[in-house]
Structures are given as C-alpha cells and as structure tokens.
Amino acid sequence: MAVSRAMHPEKLLAACTIKGLHVLGTGDALHPAWQREWKPFLANKQGICVIPTGEVEDEHRVHHLILAEDFGQFDQLRDLFVSKSKSISTNGRPHVSLSGETIAERVHDVGALIGPAHAFTPWTALFAYHDSVAGCYGSEPIDLLELGLSADSSYGAGIPDLSHVPFLSNSDAHSPQPEKIGREFNRIQINGSLSVRGVLDCIRAGAITMNAGFFPEEGKYNRTACVRCFTQYSLGQAQQHNWRCPADGGLIKKGVFDRARELSRSPPGSRPPYLHIVPLGQVIQTVEGVSSPGTKKCRAIYDAFISAFGNEIDVLIAIPEPEIRAIRPKVADAIAALRENRVILHPGGGGKYGTFSLV
Ligand SMILES: [Zn+2]
Prior knowledge:
- By secondary structure, the protein is α/β, with parallel strands linked by helices.
- The chain has 15 helices and 14 strands.
- Helix content is 34%, strand content 14%.
- Helix 11 crosses helix 15 and helix 14 (321-327) runs antiparallel to helix 15 (329-339).
- Zinc ion binds next to loops.
C-alpha cells in the first residue's frame, strides 16, 4: 500500500550501492510479510547495514519512528500492539489506539528506539497536534526526532524541548529510485566495524556528524497558504482573516516555517551541519530540460556519472568540479551552484511544492 511495486530488498540494496549509502532502514518492520521478504537478504547485504525500522500511528494520529536491533524486537511490539490495532496485519504503518507515551514505554521495554516521525509535517505528526514533546510522550524520553522532508535542523534548533534530542534526516522513500532513496541521509561517526547495534548506539549518543536533504522551502507546506489557491499569508494576516482565504474562502494552512518559528526561542542551539542537496537525477533533469529523471537521456547521463565516480553522493558532494565537468559541463555548473549555495528558492505552501532556480 502506498509504495512502489519495485520496493523489494534486492532492489533497495542495489540502490544503496549506486547512491553511496552504507546504512539502510527497512521501513514497515512490524509487518511479518515484509520481514519475510527481508530475511533471505540479511546474510548477504553487500556490505550494507540493514536496520529494522517502522512507523506506527498513535490514538491522536501522530506518527512515531521505531528503530530496533533485530526483527525479534518488532515481533514483541506486534504482540504488545495487536489488541489495540485493527490494521496491524494489513498496513505497513498501522494505527495503534494507544497514547504516544504508552507506545514509547513499550518500545523502550523491548530495547528499541523511538521518536516522532517527520515531526514538522502539518498532518499526522508531533507538532501538528502538540506544542511540546511532553504533550505527546508524557514523562517518557525520546531517542531521536525525524525532521522530515519539509524541515532542516534550523527548524528544530531553537525548540528548547529538543535540545538533547538527535535529529535524523531520513528519506522515507516509497520507491527504490535514486531520486527517492537517499534523497535525505545522515552521516554518523562509527567507531569500529559497522553493525546495527553500533548505529543505534551512535544515534543514542547523538554521534551524528552531518544531516543532508532537501531545501525545506521545496516542501508543499513550507509557508502558510490557502489550500485552494495557494496564496501565501503571514501568520498575522492568516489570523486576521480567521484562517480563511479572502479570495476564495479556502482553508489557510499554517506552514512548517511559521510553526517552527512559533515554537522556537533564540538563540538556537548548535547542531551538526545540514547540507542541502538535490538528487543527481533531478539536477540532470533540470539542466537538460526534460520531463523526468526517468527518461532515457537522463538515465544515460546518470549512469555515466556512476560508472566514472562509483556513487551519486560522491558526485553531489565530494568529486572535484573539473572532474564532473569532463563528463557533462552543464551538470558541473549546477552542482557548483548548489555547493556554493547560489540558489533562489520559491517556497511552497498550502499543498503546492516549492521550486528553486540556480544562479
Ligand atoms: Zn485561496
């Protein structure tokens, strides 16, 4: 449900290699059928560390992200949630009729980690329904906060409740395409060899050295805007109009940018650097002026980069510009502009995605 038919462990692992990822979350690990799909691949993961992960929706429709050491912890959670969930066997992200606090207690009881998923999304997320972490989780601590595609670290850095909570920038990919998987990622500092426990310990210790992902302005609820005509309003204007668009009577939806600002205090706390990136396929699509990154021409250029440099993330952030230029000058210009932050953003809002242009 709600994911690509191509979503299969084999394809996901292959996509990680092309993308340059070393750690991958399974998603939907509460579901036994999805676990069964994974099991044959856990012995030979081609050097990729696979973390069992999943989301649940609580009684107030807030989504929570769970990271576990093994599928067995998710089996225990399924047993604890089954009497409180009608959708646990049919939905990869089931609704569980328990509070956020009770869910977090159960997750900690089995030894797994939990925090709000896509915390700033204006629907089905922590800050859509609560003004504080305790409002949702009571006295139970959280281990992480997933920023979601519509926020970067700066959106949470000034929120006092979050001062000791590590931020994760995860892709939440619903397809193994390189424009989806690894569209956001985290860099972590592992001591010793790569293992699931090592990764979870790093997150617990906040040993995240970099977050990377979209410009939040690209998000479709970034600014406060009418959901019908997408006209953007300041918070003051929206209040003055009683959250109804004067042009067409449409609902004005509070944007993530304004929501984060009203929860924040200054000065913001210090956070690991957040690198704004655009998937290489989308860069190629933009500079070549074609309709999608899936066109034959785009894929051929993309493949030329991967065969030359090994993986996409290196092309985006590490390979020297002259070497990129040797493959495709227009792509080199765009990557240089992104690296130097020569970007003009046209924020989204009200359900309409934002856009950007390179200068
Ligand atoms: Zn309107």
